[in-house]
Amino acid sequence: MKVSQYFSNQYFVIAVLGLCAALSLGSYLAASEYVYRIGFPLDDAWIHQTYARNLGERSAWEFIPGQPSAGSTAPAWTLLLAIGYWLNLNAYSWTFLLGWLVLWCVAISAYFGFNILIPRNKHLGILAGMLVIFEWHLTWAAGSGMETLLAGLIALMVIIWGIRIEAQKTLAEQTLNWQWLGMGVLIGLGIWVRPDLISLLVFAGFTLILIKGDMKQKILNSLILTAGFLITSLPYILFNMAIAGEIWPNTFYAKQAEYAILRSFPLWQRYLNMFGQPLTGIGIVLLPGLVWFGVNSLRNRSWSQIFAFIWVFGYLFLYALRLPVTYQHGRYIMPVIPLICLFGIVGMVWLIDLAFRWNWGQLLRTTWIMIAVLITFSFWILGLRAYSRDVAIIESEMVEMAHWVASNTEEKSLLAAHDIGALGYFADRNLLDLAGLVSPEVIPFIRDEKALQRHMNESNADYLVTFPGWYPELVMNVELIHQTNGKFSPQMGGENMSVFDWQQ
Q1: Does residue 372 lie within any of the structural domains?
Q2: Averaged over 88-102, what is the pLDDT?
Q3: Residue 491, phi then psi, degrees to nearest 5
Q4: What is the spatial distance between Cα 71 and Cα 204, in angstroms, rounded to a whole number?
Q5: Per-residue b or e along 134-148, where b marks 16 or more CB atoms closer than 10 Å to that residue's CB
Q6: How many whole angstroms separate alpha carbon 27 and alpha carbon 387?
Q7: 464 in helix, strand or coil?
Q8: Whether pTM exceeds 0.90
Q9: Taking all residues of the chain, what is their mean pLDDT, rounded to a whole number?
Q10: Do 372 and 414 reside in the same domain of the chain?
Q11: Do the domain assignments include residue 398?
């Protein structure tokens, strides 16, 4: 059997992708253990773990016991994590198992997406799957303990589904196409993972309107799509209303308020900053293919592909408009990266096919493959180093501080803190969240240190736990009680987390 025949066998490809996903994520975890120890690269991951533990062990949607709150942006991810606590599994093992499964599913979806877009070259579909597995942002996301990669998977599945419906022309022309119901349900589930995935409804709606069919069928299918969306989205809205009295979770408002100052920069500058994040790595090599994908889709009037292309750039625009943050390797915009990988590699195959007509396709193909492999591997290594350092910082600062607080403060003391993830999980203290995730009352004055000071005094806070540089006015005249001795944060230009006596 020829090698290409093995790669045309979907079961063989799926198994290979699963092994490669385990290798990629496992290497990142091994690197973090070597540098310091296993952990998560974000304190926010501990927020999910705290909600999940309380849900799994106490059947309560609470961060602080006895205080229901909407501090989890991704209730669906929290629920998946809670399964591990229901089953009494190790938190790390279960979370990383979920990360591996999601990375594997992203790779499988990219593989099938490639085969739908280029059915004549199915033996090449494995390349799309391998590309997303070893794209360093995505491996980092798989080990982050966060919902980021799951959001990317849902976006990828919805858009591939829309492209597939258009490709099935006879099915697309039927009076009632119940696939739109399923797509609506999936988009509704998506907002349980990330509220911004409601934007997929725009992609689905425009695709439905412009693909072939008469107006009556489009109206009926639009109603089916809407019904599917409402089936899963209305419970989400009711859930948030019951917990927080708002349609969206506290984090939706808190993050925008905290980083509002960034919106003072010109919109074009913010957009370029957003767009630069997914290009850091193989994305820059895929850029010609991504552009050609958009051009070729427009030339062929492939409406699902056109609106998928627009959705990618529109998603980046939404963040440039409302939350233009690029820290933590641009984690908020990572959900577009699987689509950039898929569209980029498909566009490059189209470009190479076109180049063969001009007798220089072989040179382009060989050169591009060599550069793509080199860049992917190089940035995968750089990502491995970044991941291990990120984990080391969180473990040596936030987690170590949480253990100190648990051993050296009174059980009923009130801590004003930023960040609260590890504190909530390990310290079991009352918390006043200066970032507003579980203390939404601070959101209106989240960056006003004088107002925060008044609120802390009125709340009778006992301690302030933070990095001093985050609140220079708050820490100016208070006594330093304890400071971590972690070496990783200072090595990266940061500082050590500190505890201050607020009731001195």
Answers
A1: yes
A2: 96
A3: -60, -30
A4: 29
A5: bbbbbbbbbbbbbbb
A6: 10
A7: strand
A8: yes
A9: 92
A10: no
A11: no
